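ok here's the first one, seq then struct tokens
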Amino acid sequence: MFERSRCRNGKQAFTLIELLVVISIIALLLSILMPSLHKARRSAKSVVCQAQLKTLISAIHTYAGFNADFVVPSYNMRGVTGSTSRPYDGWGPILDRDNYVSGNGELTNNPFVCPDTQDIPGVPFFRSGAKAGQAEGYMDWPAIVTISGSYARTIPRRGFDKLIRVAYWINGDNPTGLPRALQQGIHFTGSVGYGPNLSGQIMKHNRFADFKRPAQLVALADGFYSGKQEATRVMDQGRRIGYRHQRSDLYANVAFADGHVSVIKGDRFPRKHDEGISLEEARRDNLGGGPTLYSDPNRYLSEKKVSGRINQQD
């Protein structure tokens, strides 16, 4: 009886060699599966990001439905620059305050933050440009934005009693600093109230009805909002577009003015005609059937429209 028990137990035991073989097989399987699991995880985050962009652009359409077809401002301002007495509200806090989308000041459970957002501020205090990699971060709104820098601040008297962390870029005309000539409605939205400039112009709300190519007009994208439509590609210094997702190439998730969501590769994102971007380059980027930053690219990229125009952005 005793001998049979020892034999049975001996058959059930593993030798050291067998254990090493099993461990090696498990390690091999993990090495094969981990890249696929990592890829699946990143793909899932990208799907969540696209769903959030769909929610946000739908909320912007709903906002327009209750506000005379107005596009939500990138922010409201007075004058041509910010100050401690005149913080900018921001499109995220506006949608939150008015109960179109509920956000918060965190990186998680926040529809204004892409799941792949890095925990770094895109625009630290006293620095208005963004280094490479920081476009994968975020910006908190409302904020005091000046030529020297920006920092977050609530505006209780205007109903903004909490900070909203935003990790999506909005395609807005964002003049700050010096008075400059402006073209009303040139992008998806703008800094409503900017001015008066030297010509007495004050920026007003854009309207959805004025968009000539809403299915091509970029509205929102991975990144953070603080101007810089001319610096949108992967290698551009000071870019605000955050290429947080990767297939064979880096790409950004994008919501368009008509409400659909798609992607744009890092070397294909359209750029604005401005310092360093010639009219020829901007026309190549924005004309045709592809994505555009312009509400009416044929109009705003004509020789007549851009002649003599002065752009001053942070």
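and now the second one, same deal
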Amino acid sequence: MKIATYNINGIKARLEAVTAWLAETHPEVVLLQEIKSVDAGFPRELFEDMGYRVETHGQKGFNGVAILSRLPLEDVTRGLPGDASDEQARWIEATVIGLHAVRVVALYAPNGNPAPGPKYDFKLAWLARARARAAQMLTGEEPFVLGGDWNVIPQDADAARPEAWREDALALPETRAAWRRILNLGLTDGLRARHPEPGLYSYWDFQRWAWEKNDGILIDHLLLSPQAADRLTAAGIDKDQRGRTRPSDHVPVWVELDA
């Protein structure tokens, strides 16, 4: 089972790029972020014609997450628990029914800038809520994957120019500490488990010739429960997508789990 996460930065702008990528790579499950569309406006029929089931948690103009799956989906839930006042569409869960069931989460963590400030406080609180939900999921002792744009640069090796991010919410010490608290629950970073080397990036800014200079950062991550990590066979980044026509500023990151 190939599970990919992909921040598409707007489904309307990226529809051709996403469908072309799907036709080339055929992942069983895709976790999308920043669909920037209400549920009714998402072009679900197009993806259904490609063989995917579609579940969305949309929001007009920004945010928004979705799950595409070639396999049946059950027990779909929307929203990250822990804050009844949070109306941002950043979290959707579902159970993928294959030979072995896998719970998947498509998530889009807050950026948090400018930091310090209310937006950064919200980011840290959101990551704490994500940790609480992951801890709750672990009690079920079933395989799950938390995939998405975490808006976290976990370590200096995850940035081409780490010094440029020292004061950014994505790399502040408090952000990295929040990330480690999630990992320390017993989760595995699927990409890093297979590729510990530096120089792997999933995002290049549209400005300052970042792509041409390979001035990237790694902020899209797939975290696996112990039961899912036991089935991990491969992982990678589809970096070539950033060089295509009208690309997102992110590229897909993926893991493969055995049957």
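notes on #2: Residues 198 and 218 are 10 Å apart (CA to CA). The chain has one domain: 2-257.
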